[in-house]
């Protein structure tokens, strides 16, 4: 299973377009998955207040090949759902580290859930994720001067 983001390489800098300094849109994500259901969690463990959740997107069917750029910021996308991020809104919230805080690492972890999940928020997502191992991982970095 694999995640690929063409807009930036694994471990490289996230373009401004996908951050609070740009258009703040989700990047296109290519997926290579087995049958089942999946959850993608994007977080920043370098946030001053502790791990900050930027995106919770789940109930992704295994046959999904692409999560398109600029996914609408609403909870219900049909089968696929989005939880509230730590900004307090559903959908993607791009990197926005404090100015002068140096590079933050943004982890995109993919988890296999095997079944449809009820509505999630940042508090409840970790009760599920803590029981699972990521099946794929991608990471980008970003800083604000």
TrEMBL record:
InterPro entries: PEBP, PEBP-like_sf, YbhB_YbcL/LppC-like. It holds the Pfam family PBP. It comes from the Archaea. NCBIfam families: YbhB/YbcL family Raf kinase inhibitor-like protein (TIGR00481). This is ATP/GTP binding protein. It comes from Picrophilus torridus (strain ATCC 700027 / DSM 9790 / JCM 10055 / NBRC 100828 / KAW 2/3).
